[in-house]
Give the backbone structure.
Amino acid sequence: MAEKYFNEGWFGKHPAFYEFASFFISPVRRRGVKMMGNKPINILDLATGTGAHAYELAKVGHQVTGVDLDERMLKKAKLKITKENGLQFMQGDGTKLAYRDATFDAATISFAMHDVPAEIGISILLEAKRVIKKDGFIVVVDYNHLKGSIGAKILYPIALLYETPNYKPFVRKTLDYYLQKAGLQTIEKKTFLGAVQFTKLKSRV
């Protein structure tokens, strides 16, 4: 199991501030939640961090399991668990998940792909594809690419101040590079102010 932790950006080193910042981007996360549909399903939230995205999913009735490597982040995530929302959080490596094939209806990866090197990001997508059902899907929420996006270009120099070294190559390669390598097909894509992208994916047939 490749258990190297890659979120070495400023927020990754300060979980409390990451949690505080998550409050302000909750409207963005809710846009990603809408892409999951109205029917309650069983979702795996990869690189869940402090569980902010998992929490938003659970609030609308989805059954959610969050997985992350960082115990510090997971301690804060577990504070969001209630009897009503049924959230579950597990420590684990997104490149080698401890779940059987076709366990979940869908998977989400929110603001995490830019934290890891390309080869790790591709491995995470392949594992997400493995553990979802044949008719399942994956939703990725992350920074948008710079090509033709004024919002992304404005955010880019600001994000460089606090993001990991992997952020720069991620936005320059574009998410499409990762999807092509993982054999995933985009079925829906939206953006928020051109700076954040919401991409719904399925396995190529």
